[in-house]
Every structure is written in structure tokens, then in C-alpha cells.
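Revision sheet: C-alpha cells.
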Amino acid sequence: MRILALGDVVGEPGRRLVEAFVPELRRETGADLVVVNGENAAHGHGITEAIAREWFDRLGVDVITTGNHAFDVKGIEGYFRQEPRLLRPANHPADTAGNGWVKLHTPSGAEVLVINLMGRVHMPPCDCPFRCVDAILQKERADLVLVDMHAEATSEAQAMGFHLEGRAAAVLGTHTHVGTLDAKVLPGGTAYVTDIGMTGPYEGVIGMKKEASLGRFLKVVRPKYEVAEGDLQLHAVLVTTEGKKATGIERILRKL
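Predicted:
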């Protein structure tokens, strides 16, 4: 099986990259499943129902994961309740709208369990992602397990990779918007990367105009964040599997 996973899509520039390359990449790679982190797709914060529907219905995205900005767009809770393929972190409090994991059947007939987790280090309050994922895996069974680990601390993401080694086919980091060079298959058969990297404008600071980010470090009055516009790059990984284990993980880069 082949699984294509995109890192955090940021704003309108990121959405342009998804539209330009995801259908093409699905054909080129023969991907059985496409997972995209969309928590920054709307103006750099949150996601709208219209964006999610476009990705699901027209662009061939199978699952959308999120993170700490999942509910930034007013009224999105209703769509989280309605659409099981739009995930919020599973370790949000139990009464949070929506689902933290979903099981899908690929065209080949394999059943894939996709789990969305969020780290706790330098992140908004949430339950323990380690105990949360253990509880999910105790009650859910699937041919393959893929985890989006939305974490600020590289140490927490790496720890999750080892925690799930041999139990998940892939543990893929998102959130920092900065791709890491440690993509590998762990000895237990788990494809791992600390952060896939951002899909969006690389001329700024983590997708935002550099003037606003510099102002927040240099000034008392905090400038408003605005999405940057240039150097558009799509960052993704392609995970290949055999049985329940990963056999490879390859970085993919596309530019507009």
C-alpha cells in the first residue's frame, strides 16, 4: 500500500498547492490513501466546511487531520460532527465535537485506521496522547494504523514514534511548519518523521509574513499575523507498506 501525507496547509497559497498537485501526485505515486493536515487552511488558522468539501469531493483527499487550530473558524463544530473524515485530536476532552480517529477502506480492500493526536508540551491543554492512543488501539483493529502526531516538541514526537513502533505503520509529525531530515523506518516497521513540513509560502516565518513575526519579537505592540505569499512549496511524504508494516518513507517536494 502507498499512503501520501501532506504537512500543514497554510492559507490560500497552501490551498493552491493542494489543488495544483494532490490529484497529480495521487496518480504519479499510485497512492491508495491521501491524508492532509488542514488546520491552517483558512487564512492561516482553522478550516472551513467549504475547503474540506472541496478537498474531499474534488481533489481526492481521503482524511483531513487538524490540531490546536481545529476549531478556530466559528461554526465549524457542526461539520466536525457531520463529517467523520475531518479529524480533531483524539486526546481532546471526550465531549469535544467530532472524532479523533476514523477507519477507511482503500480501493484495494485494506482497512486503515487514521488517528489524530496532539502533543502537550507548549500546546493548549489536552489529555495524554500516549494513554489516549493506547486506549484506541485496544478497542480498534485495522490492517494498517497511521498517526498524525501534531506536536511542538521534537522530543514528544520522537517519543511517540518509539511508543508506537511495531504497532503503527506510520507516525508522522505535523505542527512546527519546518520539515525535519529524520524520515526513516524504525526497526519495528513504523515509518517515522518528526515533522513533514509545511505546504504553503516559505518566504515568511512558518507561513506568515516575516514583518509580523519580527514585530512580535521586537515590539511591544504585537502586529497581526498575515499569510505570506511567495516561494510556494508542498511538503509531503509517501509511505509504502507491506502487511501491517512500513517498508519505506520518501520525502516529496513540489513548488509553484
